[in-house]
Amino acid sequence: MLSPRVQSSVVAFTIDGDTETLEVWSDESALRALQARHSRARFPSSCEQGLCGTCEVLLDGRPTRICLLAATRLDGTVIELPRRWTASAPTPP
Fold this sequence. Notes:
The protein is mainly β. It has one helix at residues 30-37, and strands spanning 8-15, 18-25, 56-59, 62-65, 78-80.
């Protein structure tokens, strides 16, 4: 059986009040897409299986573990990051 064809698409979303666009792949998690192509915040991960909660953000006001979310589902959403993830947050020693 052939695997489904992987396609790219552009998603638009709001992150901490700023509208963003990002090219994502159909087989990519939101966590991986944001880690690879979003430069204004760090997106930590630990287990990448939804167990630890390290990657949890507010997505449309709901706590969401973005390692479990398909990147294509970011389209039209509002993301609020924990302050510790933003580029302006102090880096721990």
